[in-house]
Amino acid sequence: MTQPEWRPGQEPVPGSGQPVPPQYQQPVAGYGQVGVPAEPVVYGQVGVPVEPAVRPRRVVDAGKLWAGGFATALVAALIAVAGILIARGVLKIPVLSPKEQGAWGNASTLTYAVVAFGVALLATGLMHALLISTPSPFSYFGWIIGLATVVAAALPFTSGAELEAKIATAVINALIGIAIWTLTDTSARRSFKWVQPGTVLP
């Protein structure tokens, strides 16, 4: 069957195979032509590159972090005092001083508590530094404090004290280290937030 010839002013018959003469072709407005806005790019579509994301930054609430650090230091000091009191007064184990010194002993008890208090504050300072400088602060903090706790628990066994005194001291050191580790970690996780770059903080 012969297809009808296209005439000017008529719509071409779809599928007829009859080309439209160039002089009668009309330009179709579309993206990319002069005077037509470029097609908007929507990132995330198939075949369209993903827009590079701007990473948020970590902002630390130093007041909240250090308030938790002082509370942790107080807990660590009380663990030291309670541990020595139980070891000497209840279990009759001479921790840090001879048996004749009694349950409270001499100045070693106070010194032990002060050292535990100071170590907790050092742990808070370490956590603060890690939060503002490292990509995985809690992993680094866990490794550092965990290894320090192992050293503190093993240190009494290098002394010449009785075995029961070594074990009691190691247990107290381990409890102090675990308390500092867990409490500082918990305080730190509640003391920072993520904000987008350029965000004005109150």
Written overview of the protein:
Strands 1-2 form a two-stranded antiparallel ribbon. The protein is built from four helices and two strands. The chain has a domain at 59-192. The protein has helices at 62-90, 108-133, 137-154, 163-189; strands spanning 57-60, 192-195.
Helices and strands in order, then pairings?
Layout: E1 57-60, H1 62-90, H2 108-133, H3 137-154, H4 163-189, E2 192-195
Antiparallel strand pairs: 1-2
Helix pairs in contact: 1-2, 1-4, 2-3, 2-4, 3-4
Distance between the termini: 81 Å
Give me the secondary-structure category: mainly alpha
Number of H/I helices: 4
Strand order of the largest sheet: 1-2
Oligomer: single chain
Chain-averaged pLDDT: 77
Show unreliable segments: 99-104
Beta-sheet strand percentage?
A: under 5%
Query: What is the overall silhouette?
Result: elongated
- Rg value: 37 Å
Short description:
This protein has about 200 residues and is mostly helical. The protein has a domain at about 60-190.
Q: Which structural traits does this protein have?
A:
two-stranded antiparallel sheet, 2 strands
